[in-house]
Every structure is written in structure tokens, then in C-alpha cells.
Specification:
The chain is an all-alpha fold and 207 residues long. It has one domain: Hypothetical protein af1432. Helix content is 69%, strand content 0%. It contains twelve helices and no strands. α6 crosses α7. The radius of gyration is 17 Å and the shape is globular. The two termini are 29 Å apart. The relative contact order is 0.10. It comes from Streptomyces griseoflavus Tu4000. GO terms for molecular function: guanosine-3',5'-bis(diphosphate) 3'-diphosphatase activity; kinase activity. This is GTP pyrophosphokinase.
Length: 207
């Protein structure tokens, strides 16, 4: 398992680029960063890496590759998996970041995760409808999550898992990104990157 230095508050704020934000935005960033450190603490990804590495990578992708500068979508990216890995943290998120922000996180989380139950018939259809209804900024975060997961999956030796992910990406997320690319330059850039890397990975796993 890959080792890395512990992630602390200063590191999270640096990845967010919070030094360039207004004082009020910096204060909100510190609250969100502290929540991220709390919610993701002790959790690992399937690869055995600290879970917080993933949302930080999504933030970095949005900032450095897509050109996102607005604080709120970057904070959404930082906490986009909070309710998936810790649904019980919802009250904490509402208390510190507000109901509207937490509602956006709920809309980016599958129902069976929120309800802490196994996935059942109909969940996938509802989850796709939920993602398709996301407003542009939230959809951008969701697509950035897909792009980072695609890059992460490239290191997986499980070809069946890679093929399943690519099938869902090709059947659903790429058409969704294509339909949204006219909504702004960030979504247009995201679509181009997602499409290019999807094609590359499909060629790699093709028998």
C-alpha cells in the first residue's frame, strides 16, 4: 500500500487555493476543511489509500485542469462523498455549512447510501435521474469525480471492474456530459477531457 504524509488543515486549504479567497470565504473554507478531515478520517478507498486523497484530487482537477475558481463548487468537491461514506454526518454538515449546501450534497449522493441499505431494484434508475437533474455547477463536480475515478481505475488489475465502469461511463455519463457541454466553458472542457480519456481506457481494456 502506498504511504503518504498525513493530510492536515493547511494542506487541504492549499489544495483549495483558499489563500486567494475573501476573508469570509477563507473562514468557510476552514470550516469545510475541518469537516472533511473529520468525516473522511480513518476511511480508505478500495485501493487502500486514505479516502481524503480522492476528494482532494477532484478539487485539484477542477482548479488546475478545468479552471474553476469559485469557492463553492470547490467546497462541494471537497465534501462530495461525505454523505456517501458517513450519512450520519448530515446534521453536522447542516449545522456548520447550512441546509442549502448540505441539500446539494444529498442530491449528489445515491439514495441507498443516504439510507444506509443495500442497493435494490430501481435504485440505479433513480440514481441516474438524480444525476441528470443536477444543476450545471453540481454536475461539473460529479463529472470531475467520474474523471478522477477513471484515472484511479487505470491502476486496477481487475479488468472486469474496469469494463463495468467504462460501460456505465459510456452509456450514461458521457452522453450526460455531451448534453451539458453547451452550458459553459467548464463543462465543455470537462466533456473533452472525459471523452478523450474514456477512449484511451476503452482501447486499453479491449480484448
Amino acid at each position: 500500500m502506498r504511504r503518504m504524509d498525513p493530510i492536515d488543515l493547511d494542506h487541504v486549504l492549499t489544495v483549495l487555493g483558499a489563500a486567494a479567497w475573501s476573508p469570509d470565504e477563507q473562514s468557510r473554507a476552514r470550516v469545510a476543511a475541518d469537516l472533511a478531515l473529520t468525516v473522511y478520517d480513518g476511511r480508505t478507498r478500495d485501493q487502500g489509500t486514505p479516502y481524503l486523497e480522492h476528494p482532494l484530487a477532484v478539487v485539484r482537477l477542477l482548479r488546475t485542469e478545468i479552471g474553476v475558481r469559485r469557492p463553492e463548487p470547490l467546497l462541494l468537491a471537497l465534501l462530495h462523498d461525505a454523505l456517501e461514506v458517513a450519512p450520519e454526518s448530515e446534521a453536522l454538515l447542516v449545522h456548520h455549512l447550512g441546509g442549502p449546501f448540505t441539500a446539494r450534497l444529498r442530491s449528489m449522493t445515491a439514495d441507498h447510501r443516504l439510507e444506509q441499505r443495500p442497493k435494490s431494484d430501481g435504485d440505479e434508475t433513480r440514481w441516474r435521474a438524480k444525476q441528470a437533474a443536477l444543476p450545471p455547477e453540481d454536475l461539473l463536480v460529479r463529472l470531475a469525480d467520474r474523471l478522477h475515478n477513471l484515472r484511479d481505475l487505470a491502476a486496477s488489475p481487475n479488468l472486469d471492474r474496469r469494463r463495468r465502469f467504462l460501460q456505465t461511463l459510456g452509456d450514461f455519463h458521457l452522453p450526460l456530459a455531451d448534453a451539458a457541454r453547451g452550458l459553459g466553458p467548464h463543462l465543455e472542457t470537462m466533456h473533452a477531457r472525459l471523452h478523450a480519456e474514456y477512449v484511451h481506457h476503452v482501447q486499453e481494456v479491449r480484448p
